[in-house]
Amino acid sequence: MPQNSPLPVHASRQGRRGTNRRPGANLHKLPIGLDLAGISVLEGVRAALASAVFLALNQWIGSQALLIAAVGAMITCFCDIGGSLRQRLPMLLTFTALGAATWAIFGLLRAGGLGVVLPCAGLAAFLFSMARAWGLRAQTIGNVLIVVLALAIDAPLTPDKALSFFLYFGVGGLWACLLTVLLWRIQPDRPAIQAVAAVWSAQAALAADLRDMLLRPGTSQADWDDHARGHRRAVRAHIEEARSIVSTSVRRRGLVSGRGTQALLLLEAADQLFGELIILSELLETATAPGVHAHAERMLRRLRPILLILGADHRPDIARLRQSLDRMAEEAPGSEQLNSLIGAIVDRLRITLRVVEGLEKPAPTAHPAPPDGGVWRTRIWGPLRDELTWRSAILRHAVRATVIVVPAIAITLHWWTPYSHWLTITLALTMQPFFAATWQRALERVGGTVLGAAIGGVLAFFPQTPIVVGGLLFPLAVIGFSVRQVSYGAYIACLTPLIVLLFDIVEPGHSAFVVAGMRIFYTLVGGIVAVAACMLLWPSWEPFRLRRELRETFLAYARLAVAVLGNPGTSRAEGTEAARRAAGLANSNLEASLSRALQEPGRGKRAGLDKIIAADAILRRLGAALLATPHDPSIQPILSGPGRAEWQTWLDEAFAALADGRSPSRPAPDAPASSTLQRVRRGIDVLSSDLATRGDEAPQAPL
Predict the structure, then answer these.
(1) If you placed Cys at 87, which of 83, 491, 587, 669 could pair as Cys (CB 3.0 to 4.6 Å)?
(2) Taking a C-beta distance cutoff of 8 angstroms, is the pair 193, 261 a contact?
(3) Alpha-carbon Rg of the chain, whole angstroms?
(4) Are 481 and 44 in contact (CB under 8 A)?
């Protein structure tokens, strides 16, 4: 890499769209692809049973109370975003109570007219939108509570009816909670096992793509950059998601759960293996010895199926896996660096096999103490307090949502139709704090609604008898909720026919074609308004946060360099793992911010964005080179002498200088020309010359 060359910008080698769980290498494309691994039939069965029981009883008895219970049960299922039972049940119970209270209260307020209901609806919309401060689960509850609010103000309620709505909505929500407990108690460790399996599957995809790169002639540096960006961010996201689910499961059940504990150990092994695969890609990219790529390709061919088997939900053939590992060890490429690394990978996998086989027992750990009042104050008040500033995107989003939702409610109540609440619902569910997220959600919601309405129109040709409608509702509910994690657009496409049929039960006498057409109309109008609001009302443009994300990434890499070049020993290994994780998360956050910035219209300064895209690729390579330093024999004399401290200090200062927009104040210490340390030095030189000295072209953040 020439010292003063401009940062290269390449088109992505991977043309297909990414998904939310695997965003892919091309940051210019919205991650709206289909993630078929997200299909969960159990989710669909739970949602279908939750509402089907009450709908079947309604067909027999004909009671409005049963319809309210059915709506409460189905809406409660909307709030469930998965995870362990310990994570999901408290949130479902919380929503059940808040949803029932919201419907009853706003049904009463509706009787007071617009002068009463609009200010209260605005306050509620603001509070529900601020729930994002407490994370994704609270955000989901807040969004669905706005849906409940929109439904509640359709008709005024007397105190007696409000009480009955509160009770029946609560009954439906509690029934959905009971089904959740019954279904997920059958296999309490399944969410943790599935989350860990997704980690191993993502690493198998990384290994397969790495092998494909070795087989393809003329692999360029851009291909290696795309490989790193397309896989490492996805693996890190899977690891962090699995860490949350598994740790919650183990805390709840302790170490008495063999499968849960095994999932925890498999996750830690996968995370450590991930670091070794990063080093492997770095060494293969820079390998020049003849035959190295051919030997490594054969090793990777054996590695992928092993990774898939280790993540499978069944007991593998341990003897055959050991034989495969032995053959992998024999595929030594003939390079001292790669031999050492492949030996470490094989040893890691052998330890993992012992975990799967159950030969290694974990040491007992203390159960965490129950949280006291101080911790609760930190969990509840702390995140909210941090967002109570106008610089907060969440606060501006809450104000924006209030300003848009209140007029929408006023319009839909003044010119009321049975369909008009879809405008408020679309606005609430489409509008996001950032323009790119709003744009993506609008495209998926409008496209999914149009496709789903077409499917609903086809179903309208069936005889609209209670038996036929009831027979269609159950499979539609199963399909709709099963694909929630596949993509938002697919979810809406499958859910819209269900809503079209449900409308005929709740509001009989309406043509299915009219219902489908009105849903398309209100969804289209709501999507347009949501996108326009994010552009015009206190927008949170992403480029102004990019420099801050880049700064945090530089500082994370400074900590990684200090940890890697620190003193040897157990503490060094533990510190390196923590620093590697922090650097990976910082890189992923930077790429997510870049992707959002690239979706925003008319922001100019594309040259600045292109430089940060290239800087992100260089940082990925620098991280891999830093992790590979212990496997580089040419620098072992440096690392075993005073040169280690010199390089440690220089790298810390260099990354800190880049974080402040400056060039390093002094040159790097000496090291062999072809060593990993010199590759790190050249990367820092390029970053310094192109970002620090021309930082005025890059987007600046209001720090």
Answers:
(1) 83
(2) no
(3) 28
(4) yes
